[in-house]
């Protein structure tokens, strides 16, 4: 298992790797990085510098993207 970002709240937060988050959003890992840079997703870094994304935010963004696609 990969190391998780360290904080008091991390015990209750599920963090996803880019490889886990990207398929949920039907995008590549690079798109996740751009969205994190644009502050659409919260990103945390492990001690090794790897990115982790909050599962709840990834799922919420996936739902909003689905809603937008259905409206179009």
Give the structure's gist in a few sentences.
It contains three helices and three strands. The chain has 72 residues and is of the alpha+beta class.
> Could you give the order of strands across the largest sheet?
1-3-2
> Low-confidence parts lasting 5 or more residues at pLDDT below 50?
none
Question: Would you count the extended β strands for me?
Answer: 3
Beta fraction? 5-15%
Report the average pLDDT across residues. 87
Rounded to an integer, what's the Rg over CA atoms?
A: 13 Å
Tell me the distance between the termini. 40 Å
CATH-level-2 architecture: Orthogonal Bundle
The 3D shape can be described as globular
Helix-strand category: alpha+beta
CATH top-level class: Mainly Alpha
Number of helices: 3
**Could you please say which CATH topology applies here?**
Multidrug-efflux Transporter Regulator, Chain: A, Domain 2
Helix content: 40-55%
Order of helices and strands: EHHEEH
Number of domains: 1
- Major β-sheet annotation: 3 strands, antiparallel
